[in-house]
Amino acid sequence: MKTILVTGAAGFIGYHVAQRLLMRGDRVIGCDNLNDYYDVTLKEARLQQLQSHAAFGFVRADLADRGATAALFSGEYFDTVIHLAAQAGIRYSLINPTAYIDSNLTGFANILEGCRRQETPHLVYASSSSVYGANTAVPFSVHQNVDHPLSLYAATKKANELMAHSYAAIYGIPSTGLRFFTVYGPWGRPDMACFSFTKAILAGEPIDLYNHGRMQRDFTYIDDIVEGVIRTADRTAVPDPDWCGGAPDSGTSFAPWRIYNIGNSQPVELLAFVEILERKLGRKAVVNLLPMQPGEVPSTYADVVDLTQDTGFCPATSIDEGIGRFVQWYREYYAL
User: Fold this and answer.
1) Which residues contact 180 (CB under 8 A, 6 or more apart)?
2) pLDDT tens string 101-147
3) Among this protein's residues, is 153 annotated catalytic?
4) Residue among 104, 29, 106 at smallest CA distance from 72
5) In this structure, are residues 168 and 113 in contact, taking their beta carbons and an 8 Å threshold?
6) Confidence band (pLDDT; 50, 70, 90) for 86?
7) How far apart are CA 58 and CA 56, in angstroms?
8) Among residues 153, 184, 260, 330, which one is catalytic?
9) pTM metric for this prediction
10) Taking Cα atoms as reference points, which of 315, 320, 322, 321 lies closest to residue 129?
Protein backbone atom coordinates (compact mmCIF):
# COMPACT_ATOMS: atom_id res chain seq x y z
CA MET A 1 0.00 0.00 0.00
CA LYS A 2 1.44 3.35 -1.07
CA THR A 3 0.83 6.53 0.90
CA ILE A 4 -0.01 9.34 -1.49
CA LEU A 5 -0.56 13.00 -0.72
CA VAL A 6 -3.31 14.62 -2.80
CA THR A 7 -3.52 18.36 -2.33
CA GLY A 8 -6.77 20.05 -3.27
CA ALA A 9 -8.54 16.82 -2.31
CA ALA A 10 -11.89 18.57 -1.79
CA GLY A 11 -11.61 20.13 -5.24
CA PHE A 12 -13.04 18.77 -8.47
CA ILE A 13 -10.03 16.92 -9.88
CA GLY A 14 -8.46 16.21 -6.49
CA TYR A 15 -11.61 14.49 -5.27
CA HIS A 16 -11.79 12.19 -8.28
CA VAL A 17 -8.08 11.36 -8.17
CA ALA A 18 -8.26 10.55 -4.45
CA GLN A 19 -11.31 8.33 -5.02
CA ARG A 20 -9.53 6.40 -7.75
CA LEU A 21 -6.42 5.88 -5.62
CA LEU A 22 -8.49 4.67 -2.68
CA MET A 23 -10.44 2.28 -4.89
CA ARG A 24 -7.24 0.63 -6.10
CA GLY A 25 -5.96 0.18 -2.54
CA ASP A 26 -3.66 3.12 -1.86
CA ARG A 27 -3.63 5.10 1.37
CA VAL A 28 -4.44 8.74 0.66
CA ILE A 29 -3.76 11.82 2.75
CA GLY A 30 -5.88 14.65 1.43
CA CYS A 31 -5.12 18.30 2.06
CA ASP A 32 -7.36 21.28 1.35
CA ASN A 33 -8.09 24.70 2.83
CA LEU A 34 -11.78 24.59 1.81
CA ASN A 35 -11.72 28.22 0.70
CA ASP A 36 -14.85 30.00 -0.50
CA TYR A 37 -13.86 30.65 -4.13
CA TYR A 38 -16.99 28.65 -4.90
CA ASP A 39 -19.70 26.83 -2.92
CA VAL A 40 -18.03 25.30 0.14
CA THR A 41 -20.92 22.86 0.65
CA LEU A 42 -19.96 21.16 -2.63
CA LYS A 43 -16.39 20.77 -1.39
CA GLU A 44 -17.65 19.41 1.92
CA ALA A 45 -19.88 16.92 0.10
CA ARG A 46 -16.90 15.64 -1.90
CA LEU A 47 -14.86 15.40 1.27
CA GLN A 48 -17.61 13.44 2.99
CA GLN A 49 -17.48 10.89 0.18
CA LEU A 50 -13.74 10.47 0.66
CA GLN A 51 -13.97 10.20 4.43
CA SER A 52 -16.12 7.08 4.07
CA HIS A 53 -12.89 5.25 3.18
CA ALA A 54 -10.84 3.94 6.10
CA ALA A 55 -7.62 4.54 4.16
CA PHE A 56 -8.29 8.27 3.76
CA GLY A 57 -6.93 10.89 6.11
CA PHE A 58 -7.60 14.61 5.87
CA VAL A 59 -5.54 17.63 6.85
CA ARG A 60 -7.11 21.07 6.58
CA ALA A 61 -4.30 23.47 5.77
CA ASP A 62 -3.42 26.44 3.59
CA LEU A 63 -0.32 25.48 1.60
CA ALA A 64 0.72 29.13 1.44
CA ASP A 65 1.35 28.79 5.18
CA ARG A 66 4.96 27.60 5.33
CA GLY A 67 4.63 26.16 8.82
CA ALA A 68 1.45 24.25 8.02
CA THR A 69 3.01 22.74 4.89
CA ALA A 70 6.17 21.77 6.75
CA ALA A 71 4.03 20.08 9.41
CA LEU A 72 2.16 18.17 6.71
CA PHE A 73 5.40 16.69 5.39
CA SER A 74 6.92 16.05 8.81
CA GLY A 75 3.88 14.06 9.90
CA GLU A 76 3.91 11.54 7.04
CA TYR A 77 6.20 10.02 4.42
CA PHE A 78 4.68 10.14 0.94
CA ASP A 79 5.55 7.71 -1.84
CA THR A 80 4.04 10.19 -4.32
CA VAL A 81 2.81 13.77 -4.02
CA ILE A 82 -0.01 14.72 -6.40
CA HIS A 83 -0.33 18.47 -6.11
CA LEU A 84 -3.69 19.66 -7.47
CA ALA A 85 -4.41 22.53 -5.07
CA ALA A 86 -4.38 25.93 -6.78
CA GLN A 87 -6.30 29.12 -7.22
CA ALA A 88 -8.14 28.41 -10.46
CA GLY A 89 -9.93 30.62 -12.96
CA ILE A 90 -8.66 33.06 -15.57
CA ARG A 91 -11.16 35.90 -15.09
CA TYR A 92 -10.82 35.87 -11.30
CA SER A 93 -7.09 36.55 -11.70
CA LEU A 94 -8.06 39.99 -13.06
CA ILE A 95 -9.97 40.70 -9.85
CA ASN A 96 -7.84 39.12 -7.14
CA PRO A 97 -4.27 38.58 -8.38
CA THR A 98 -2.82 38.14 -4.88
CA ALA A 99 -4.81 34.93 -4.44
CA TYR A 100 -2.81 33.46 -7.34
CA ILE A 101 0.51 34.64 -5.95
CA ASP A 102 -0.25 33.13 -2.54
CA SER A 103 -1.67 29.80 -3.67
CA ASN A 104 0.00 29.07 -6.98
CA LEU A 105 3.46 30.46 -6.30
CA THR A 106 4.04 30.53 -2.55
CA GLY A 107 2.01 27.37 -2.01
CA PHE A 108 3.85 25.52 -4.76
CA ALA A 109 7.23 26.66 -3.42
CA ASN A 110 6.27 25.22 -0.03
CA ILE A 111 5.31 21.91 -1.67
CA LEU A 112 8.67 21.79 -3.45
CA GLU A 113 10.47 22.41 -0.18
CA GLY A 114 8.50 19.62 1.49
CA CYS A 115 9.43 17.24 -1.31
CA ARG A 116 13.07 18.30 -1.10
CA ARG A 117 13.34 17.73 2.64
CA GLN A 118 11.55 14.41 2.42
CA GLU A 119 13.25 13.32 -0.81
CA THR A 120 9.86 12.49 -2.29
CA PRO A 121 10.20 9.82 -5.02
CA HIS A 122 7.83 11.59 -7.44
CA LEU A 123 6.00 14.92 -7.55
CA VAL A 124 3.07 15.21 -9.96
CA TYR A 125 1.43 18.61 -10.27
CA ALA A 126 -1.32 20.34 -12.20
CA SER A 127 -0.34 22.79 -14.88
CA SER A 128 -2.83 24.10 -17.42
CA SER A 129 -3.52 24.42 -21.13
CA SER A 130 -3.62 28.17 -20.50
CA VAL A 131 0.20 28.23 -20.56
CA TYR A 132 0.02 28.05 -24.38
CA GLY A 133 -1.24 31.65 -24.28
CA ALA A 134 -0.63 33.47 -27.55
CA ASN A 135 0.43 30.29 -29.40
CA THR A 136 -1.69 29.73 -32.49
CA ALA A 137 -0.05 26.58 -33.90
CA VAL A 138 -2.47 23.77 -33.08
CA PRO A 139 -2.68 21.16 -31.77
CA PHE A 140 -0.67 22.43 -28.80
CA SER A 141 2.40 20.31 -28.18
CA VAL A 142 4.50 20.08 -25.03
CA HIS A 143 7.51 20.63 -27.27
CA GLN A 144 6.37 24.15 -28.19
CA ASN A 145 7.70 27.25 -26.48
CA VAL A 146 5.20 28.70 -23.99
CA ASP A 147 6.63 32.08 -23.07
CA HIS A 148 3.63 34.27 -23.90
CA PRO A 149 0.89 33.76 -21.28
CA LEU A 150 -2.27 35.88 -21.57
CA SER A 151 -3.31 35.85 -17.90
CA LEU A 152 -1.71 35.87 -14.48
CA TYR A 153 -3.20 32.44 -13.87
CA ALA A 154 -1.38 31.10 -16.93
CA ALA A 155 1.83 32.81 -15.85
CA THR A 156 1.69 31.14 -12.42
CA LYS A 157 1.23 27.74 -14.03
CA LYS A 158 4.21 28.28 -16.33
CA ALA A 159 6.14 29.42 -13.26
CA ASN A 160 5.25 26.14 -11.53
CA GLU A 161 6.80 24.19 -14.40
CA LEU A 162 9.99 26.26 -14.16
CA MET A 163 10.13 25.98 -10.36
CA ALA A 164 9.72 22.21 -10.56
CA HIS A 165 12.47 22.02 -13.16
CA SER A 166 14.90 23.88 -10.93
CA TYR A 167 14.27 21.44 -8.06
CA ALA A 168 14.58 18.48 -10.43
CA ALA A 169 17.88 19.83 -11.75
CA ILE A 170 19.40 20.83 -8.41
CA TYR A 171 18.00 18.24 -6.01
CA GLY A 172 17.07 15.40 -8.35
CA ILE A 173 13.37 15.46 -7.40
CA PRO A 174 11.47 13.67 -10.19
CA SER A 175 8.55 15.86 -11.24
CA THR A 176 5.81 15.60 -13.83
CA GLY A 177 3.66 18.55 -14.86
CA LEU A 178 0.23 17.93 -16.38
CA ARG A 179 -1.41 20.48 -18.63
CA PHE A 180 -5.14 19.88 -18.25
CA PHE A 181 -7.53 20.93 -21.02
CA THR A 182 -11.00 22.23 -19.94
CA VAL A 183 -12.05 19.52 -17.50
CA TYR A 184 -15.75 18.76 -16.99
CA GLY A 185 -17.90 16.06 -15.44
CA PRO A 186 -19.76 15.05 -12.25
CA TRP A 187 -18.80 16.97 -9.09
CA GLY A 188 -17.41 19.73 -11.32
CA ARG A 189 -16.68 23.34 -10.45
CA PRO A 190 -19.71 25.69 -10.49
CA ASP A 191 -17.69 28.43 -12.22
CA MET A 192 -16.90 26.29 -15.27
CA ALA A 193 -18.96 26.14 -18.45
CA CYS A 194 -20.67 22.75 -18.12
CA PHE A 195 -21.89 23.46 -14.59
CA SER A 196 -22.76 27.14 -14.96
CA PHE A 197 -24.49 26.65 -18.32
CA THR A 198 -26.57 23.78 -16.96
CA LYS A 199 -27.66 25.82 -13.97
CA ALA A 200 -28.58 28.80 -16.16
CA ILE A 201 -30.52 26.76 -18.74
CA LEU A 202 -32.61 25.04 -16.06
CA ALA A 203 -33.31 28.39 -14.40
CA GLY A 204 -34.19 30.09 -17.69
CA GLU A 205 -31.33 32.53 -17.23
CA PRO A 206 -29.10 33.82 -20.06
CA ILE A 207 -25.68 32.35 -20.85
CA ASP A 208 -22.78 34.60 -21.84
CA LEU A 209 -20.83 33.18 -24.79
CA TYR A 210 -17.64 35.08 -25.48
CA ASN A 211 -16.06 35.50 -28.91
CA HIS A 212 -19.68 35.37 -30.12
CA GLY A 213 -19.86 31.66 -29.32
CA ARG A 214 -17.01 30.79 -31.65
CA MET A 215 -14.63 30.00 -28.80
CA GLN A 216 -13.34 26.44 -29.08
CA ARG A 217 -12.39 24.35 -26.07
CA ASP A 218 -10.84 20.89 -25.87
CA PHE A 219 -13.37 19.62 -23.32
CA THR A 220 -11.90 16.65 -21.44
CA TYR A 221 -14.02 14.34 -19.32
CA ILE A 222 -12.94 13.92 -15.70
CA ASP A 223 -12.41 10.14 -15.92
CA ASP A 224 -9.91 10.68 -18.74
CA ILE A 225 -8.10 13.31 -16.68
CA VAL A 226 -7.90 10.95 -13.71
CA GLU A 227 -6.60 8.09 -15.85
CA GLY A 228 -3.88 10.38 -17.19
CA VAL A 229 -2.94 11.54 -13.69
CA ILE A 230 -2.72 7.99 -12.34
CA ARG A 231 -0.71 6.65 -15.26
CA THR A 232 1.81 9.47 -15.17
CA ALA A 233 2.05 9.28 -11.37
CA ASP A 234 2.91 5.59 -11.64
CA ARG A 235 5.64 6.39 -14.17
CA THR A 236 8.33 8.32 -12.33
CA ALA A 237 9.89 11.07 -14.43
CA VAL A 238 13.40 10.31 -15.68
CA PRO A 239 15.99 12.35 -17.61
CA ASP A 240 15.73 12.41 -21.39
CA PRO A 241 19.04 10.96 -22.68
CA ASP A 242 18.55 12.75 -26.01
CA TRP A 243 18.03 16.20 -24.51
CA CYS A 244 20.50 18.78 -25.80
CA GLY A 245 21.18 22.26 -24.48
CA GLY A 246 22.05 23.40 -27.99
CA ALA A 247 18.50 22.69 -29.15
CA PRO A 248 16.51 22.44 -25.88
CA ASP A 249 13.24 20.49 -25.90
CA SER A 250 10.52 22.28 -23.90
CA GLY A 251 8.77 19.07 -22.88
CA THR A 252 11.69 17.05 -21.47
CA SER A 253 15.04 17.71 -19.79
CA PHE A 254 18.44 16.42 -18.76
CA ALA A 255 16.83 16.42 -15.29
CA PRO A 256 14.07 14.01 -14.14
CA TRP A 257 11.32 16.37 -15.34
CA ARG A 258 8.50 15.85 -17.81
CA ILE A 259 5.45 17.71 -19.13
CA TYR A 260 2.33 16.08 -20.58
CA ASN A 261 -0.90 17.37 -22.11
CA ILE A 262 -4.09 15.65 -21.00
CA GLY A 263 -6.85 16.62 -23.40
CA ASN A 264 -9.48 15.03 -25.59
CA SER A 265 -7.89 16.35 -28.83
CA GLN A 266 -11.37 17.20 -30.13
CA PRO A 267 -12.02 20.97 -29.85
CA VAL A 268 -15.70 21.87 -29.60
CA GLU A 269 -17.19 25.30 -30.38
CA LEU A 270 -19.15 26.74 -27.46
CA LEU A 271 -22.33 27.08 -29.52
CA ALA A 272 -22.15 23.35 -30.32
CA PHE A 273 -21.46 22.59 -26.65
CA VAL A 274 -24.61 24.49 -25.66
CA GLU A 275 -26.65 22.61 -28.29
CA ILE A 276 -25.63 19.27 -26.74
CA LEU A 277 -26.56 20.57 -23.29
CA GLU A 278 -29.94 21.73 -24.59
CA ARG A 279 -30.61 18.27 -25.98
CA LYS A 280 -29.59 16.49 -22.76
CA LEU A 281 -31.61 18.87 -20.58
CA GLY A 282 -34.63 19.12 -22.85
CA ARG A 283 -34.51 22.92 -22.56
CA LYS A 284 -33.51 25.78 -24.85
CA ALA A 285 -30.80 28.18 -23.74
CA VAL A 286 -31.04 31.96 -23.73
CA VAL A 287 -27.72 33.10 -25.19
CA ASN A 288 -25.83 36.39 -25.03
CA LEU A 289 -23.16 36.59 -27.72
CA LEU A 290 -20.31 38.78 -26.46
CA PRO A 291 -16.81 39.77 -27.64
CA MET A 292 -13.60 38.12 -26.45
CA GLN A 293 -12.63 38.75 -22.84
CA PRO A 294 -9.15 39.77 -21.60
CA GLY A 295 -6.93 36.80 -20.78
CA GLU A 296 -8.90 34.31 -22.88
CA VAL A 297 -7.66 32.39 -25.92
CA PRO A 298 -9.89 31.62 -28.91
CA SER A 299 -9.09 27.90 -29.07
CA THR A 300 -7.45 25.07 -27.16
CA TYR A 301 -6.45 21.77 -28.75
CA ALA A 302 -4.23 19.14 -27.14
CA ASP A 303 -1.55 17.06 -28.78
CA VAL A 304 -1.33 13.97 -26.55
CA VAL A 305 1.24 11.99 -28.54
CA ASP A 306 3.76 11.98 -25.67
CA LEU A 307 1.13 10.89 -23.14
CA THR A 308 0.06 8.01 -25.36
CA GLN A 309 3.61 6.93 -26.23
CA ASP A 310 4.77 6.92 -22.61
CA THR A 311 1.67 5.60 -20.81
CA GLY A 312 -0.40 3.86 -23.49
CA PHE A 313 -3.39 6.08 -22.72
CA CYS A 314 -5.32 8.46 -24.95
CA PRO A 315 -8.41 10.32 -23.67
CA ALA A 316 -11.43 9.28 -25.70
CA THR A 317 -14.72 10.05 -23.90
CA SER A 318 -17.00 11.80 -26.40
CA ILE A 319 -18.50 15.16 -25.52
CA ASP A 320 -21.99 13.71 -26.00
CA GLU A 321 -21.37 10.90 -23.53
CA GLY A 322 -19.56 13.13 -21.04
CA ILE A 323 -22.25 15.82 -20.96
CA GLY A 324 -24.89 13.12 -20.57
CA ARG A 325 -23.12 11.76 -17.48
CA PHE A 326 -22.76 15.24 -16.03
CA VAL A 327 -26.43 16.09 -16.52
CA GLN A 328 -27.45 12.83 -14.86
CA TRP A 329 -25.22 13.63 -11.85
CA TYR A 330 -26.49 17.22 -11.67
CA ARG A 331 -30.13 16.12 -11.59
CA GLU A 332 -29.40 13.53 -8.91
CA TYR A 333 -27.21 15.79 -6.75
CA TYR A 334 -29.72 18.65 -6.76
CA ALA A 335 -32.73 16.30 -6.66
CA LEU A 336 -34.26 17.78 -9.81
Assistant:
1) 13, 126, 127, 128, 129, 220, 225, 262, 263
2) 999 999 999 999 999 999 999 999 999 999 999 999 999 999 999 99
3) yes
4) 29
5) no
6) very high
7) 7
8) 153
9) 0.97
10) 315
